[in-house]
Amino acid sequence: MKMQSTQLENSLLNSLSKKESSFTLGHSSNPSPIVVPGQTIGMLGGGQLGRMMILEGRRLGYRFVVLDPASDSPAGQVADEQIVGAYDSPMAIEQLMEKSDLVVYEFENIDPDTVRMIESIKPLPQGSDLLCWTGHRGQERKVLQDAQIPIASYQVVTSKAKLVEAIEQIKLPCVLKVLTGGYDGKGQWVISTLDDPFPPAEIIEKGILVEKFVPYVKEISVIVARGISGEMEVYPPVMNIHRNQILHMTISPAPIKEGIRERAEQIAYRLANQLQFVGVLAIEMFVLADGTILVNELSPSPHNSGHITMDTTNPCQFEQFMRAVTGLPLRKSVRKNTGIMVNLLGEHQEAFFEQFAKLPSCAKVHLYGKSVARVGRKMGHINFVGDSLSDLLELINEMSIWEPLSGQEWEAFVAIANIK
Ligand code: AMP
Asked: Domain named ATP-grasp: which ranges (predicted)?
């Protein structure tokens, strides 16, 4: 859905008054909000991330207008207004800008050209830089490499012959990934021998990332917020368990040694400092048995693994995001308790509703207002909070909403650290 940016830009620049573009994003050490409570924030995208951003932003007194192609979107339901329209519709974008004092995007698959064009007219503190490369695995690896962030060895190839050459250099096992568009594990091939099925030629020709398979023992992620003035707040690492390549569970704090926690947070600070972004960035990392950390992926917005902060940490990632983009000072994040987030997917919905009334008070339910449940579709999440992670895990394991943890998943949970 790539938009014809020049055409759109011209039509919009002509139709909007010049005085609206006279804003500056100051990088002063004493930030003042660029929008104040009562003013309106326009949002590109109406998904669950947007919904949770708005719920926090409303507490701070902001108004919201959402642009999404689907009516009754999760974010639209809690906004003051929703414009139903495509992200590349000049009319819809013009409407969004006319109604907004500041614009944000809530998800990462938005076209950077659209963002760049809006940013030339309205304050859009997140900017378009991060979006230009976080949506492209090859470019993302290059940025990480240039920033001297530890990553698995990789190459980008566009032919079968070069692919085989790259595998010989990197050495099996390898993971092949499409450069754009693949998410939640789609568009990936694990190659253990040269006889394993390769992606079709037409996919290879578009560009494939060949990456060393990482024998990780844990997947962790770190959320970092960065404000307009450059101030930063890092949330302690959480551990993630995926099922069918979709995030199943996040454990907070991550059961890792203190030294690994420190290094993971340092990586996050270093990256945030070098990237100079505004908003919230999630950094997914692999932890190896010897304690080595390799960064796997970045996400330029609040992240599913950060949803646990809604009930364990003050402020949560969504409030911190709203503070960052509006120019309010960030708050030091303070952890209130331990917690485990479990995603509610379409296939869990029926069992969940059977249990809903019986859930204990430590289960904080967050539903996204989606009316159609499909397998793999994120319908909501539950944050289980308390003092003991193992008690919470036992409680979750006894519920008949999800499959209990496998032996391997338990191992990731108990390995390395002493669990309280
Ligand atoms: P991604 O789409 O890159 O986040 O990958 C989805 C999932 O595939 C990750 O959460 C890992 O479980 C797995 N994965 C991705 N890259 C690698 C790798 N280089 N080695 C081992 N597992 C990987």
From this structure: 141-326
CA distance 151 to 258: 21
Which residue has a Cα nearest atom 19 of ligand 1? 213
How far is residue 339's CA from residue 239's CA, in Å, rounded to a whole number? 11
State how far the Cα of 201 lies from the Cα of 160, in Å rounded to an integer: 7
Nearest to 260 by CA among 238, 219, 293, 214: 293
Ligand 1 contact via 296 beta carbon (within 6 Å): yes
Shortest-distance Cα residue to atom 5 of ligand 1: 185
**Which is it for strands 40-44 and 63-68: parallel, antiparallel or unpaired?**
parallel
Of 252, 255, 173, 185, nearest in space to 218 by CA: 255
The radius of gyration computed from the CA coordinates of the chain, to the nearest angstrom, equals 22
Residue 416 has what pLDDT? 56
Indicate if ligand 1 lies below 6 Å from the C-beta of 219: yes
Q: What is the pLDDT of residues 358-369, one digit of tens each?
A: 999 999 999 999
Summarize pLDDT for 24-65 with one digit per residue, the tens: 444 444 456 889 999 999 999 999 999 999 999 999 999 999
- Quick check: CB of 213 below 6 Å from ligand 1? yes
Q: Is 282 helix (H, G, I), strand (E, B) or coil?
A: strand
* pLDDT > 50? residue 13: no
Going 91 to 95 to 97 to 102, the CA torsion angle's sign is: negative
How far apart are the C-alpha atoms of 417 and 256, rounded to whole Å?
5
Residues with Cβ within 8 Å of 110's Cβ and at least 6 positions away in sequence, in order, are: 44, 45, 87, 131
